[in-house]
Amino acid sequence: MEEALSWISSNQETIYIVILMIFVGIEVIGRVPSVLHTPLMSGANAIHGVVIIGAIIVMGNADPGNYPALILGFLAVVLGTLNVVGGFVVTDRMLEMFKVKKK
């Protein structure tokens, strides 16, 4: 318990910034019209490619015996890949709606 409290007190500014980012993100997304919500979210999902690169770097620098880092890195790669692919699928579906259909 003592370690957790000391960690919180040493990272207090970072915790405040993360909480502020959460509130700003909710406000920004909440004010987006529903028509623009899908393109915005599919673009945000495509940006998660950075998560994949970061996870690969973490896994590459982790010790072979550090199983928590390897497991979390693997999960980040898998979930980031699903997010990126999902973003592109949503964008493709959205663009299909605007194509002229042949008779």
Topology:
Blueprint lengths: L1 H9 L1 H19 L3 H14 L1 H13 L5 H31 L6
Helix pairs in contact: 3-5, 4-5
Outline the structure in words.
The protein is mainly alpha-helical and 103 residues long. The protein has 2 domains: 1-31; 36-103. The protein contains 5 helices and no strands. The chain has helices spanning 2-10, 12-30, 34-47, 49-61, 67-97. Helix 3 (34-47) packs antiparallel against helix 5 and helix 4 (49-61) runs antiparallel to helix 5 (67-97). The longest helix has 31 residues, at 67-97. The protein is flat.
- Major sheet attributes: none
| Envelope shape | flat
Work out the number of β strands. Answer: 0
Would you tell me the structural class of the helices and strands?
Answer: mainly alpha
As for the number of domains, it is 2
Beta content comes to under 5%
Q: What Rg do the Cα atoms give?
A: 19 Å
Features:
103 residues, 2 domains, 83% helix, 0% strand
Short synopsis of the structure:
This protein is mainly α and 103 residues long.
